[in-house]
Amino acid sequence: MIGSEIEALTTSVQLDDGSPTGEDLRDGGITSGRTDFYDFGHAEVMKAAELGDFLRSRRERIDPTTVGLPGGTNRRTAGLRREEVAVLAGVGVSWLTRLEQGRANNVSTEVLGGLANALRLSGTEIAHLYTLAAVRLPTEAVDVALTPALQRLVDSLNPNPAYLLDHNWNLVAWNTSEEELFPVLTTAGSSPNLLRLFLEHPEIREFIADWPSEVERLTRQFRAHVTEFPDERLDALSAELRAEHGEFARAWDRHDVAPLAPKARVINHPSGQRSFDQHRLALPDHPGWQLVLFVPK
User: Fold this and answer.
1) Beta bridge partners of 165
2) CB atoms within 10 A of CB 284
3) Which of these, 90, 98, 255, 276, lies nearest to 182 by C-alpha position?
4) What integer is the mean pLDDT of 195-204?
5) Cα 241 from chain centroid?
6) What is the average pLDDT value for the chain, to the nearest integer?
7) Angle 93-100/82-89 helices, nearest 10 degrees?
8) What pLDDT, in 10s, does the model give residues 70-108?
9) pTM of the model
């Protein structure tokens, strides 16, 4: 089916000067009136030339037979033809031409999603694609699963306590040293939310020597995270926490933001006071995820 559609398209298409056609306007190539892209009036600007080079390089690396198209030596170009990618991605050929030639000013999330699927991009490549286009990653792009490799990574960090936060700030994995440091994790469920742990468990308040300032720091980091990875679920969580917890509401209403910077931590553990350097590290192949590691001082 795909092969016949592409054959019909490639025998009839006339490549123009790259200007978007009526079809391009309908398929989301031009995004006038949309709010999911940045134009030249914003701080971040689409890197049109680099985006075009990236799309072309990804197209040229794909073996046509892996997407149900004939291979062989008759092809004059490596990988997929531009017309073939257009059909697979559901976009207009002239609009894809414009993108690859670096002559587009903006692009919609629908077009980026179609191209990511057609070009079989990895998680890191998808994040790179959206960065080049100056478009925020959609929710589905950050909804990735915990992999066995990541679980092994966390486990391998023993005896240093460590845990993984997903895009929604839920703890999706931790090692035995982390559980020993914070026994509340044994009864907190499979994926407890970090902010709710801090705000709703008295044991955490007792364990964290600087609990008030730590809640403020987490709130500042969470606000920066919500801005970078917008999601209705995160908006709902912040609204709930603001309504339920005065400490969070006061910190949230200050509109302060903070980076994922290392911090000295003091834990009032039943076995005695323990001091750590805490590191929060981003995971490039899991957008919005963090690896949090405690290193004894």
Assistant:
1) 171, 290
2) 11
3) 276
4) 95
5) 23
6) 83
7) 120
8) 766 676 777 888 999 999 999 999 989 999 999 988 888
9) 0.65
Cα separation of 233 and 231, whole Å? Answer: 5
Residue 276: alpha-carbon gap to chain centroid = 29
Residue 14's identity, in one-letter code, is Q
Peptide bond into 159 cis (omega under 30): yes
Q: For the chain, which domains are there? A: 2-136 (1.10.260.40), 148-296 (3.30.450.180)
Would you say 113 and 135 are in contact if contact means Cβ atoms under 8 Å apart?
no
pLDDT digits (tens, 9 = 90+) for 41-79: 333 578 899 999 999 999 998 888 787 777 666 767 778
3-state secondary structure of 82: helix
Task: Check if the beta carbon of residue 99 is closer than 8 Å to that of residue 57.
Answer: no
Distances (CA, A) of 27 to 81, 95, 102, 225: 20, 10, 19, 31
- CB contact at 8 A, 19 and 98: yes
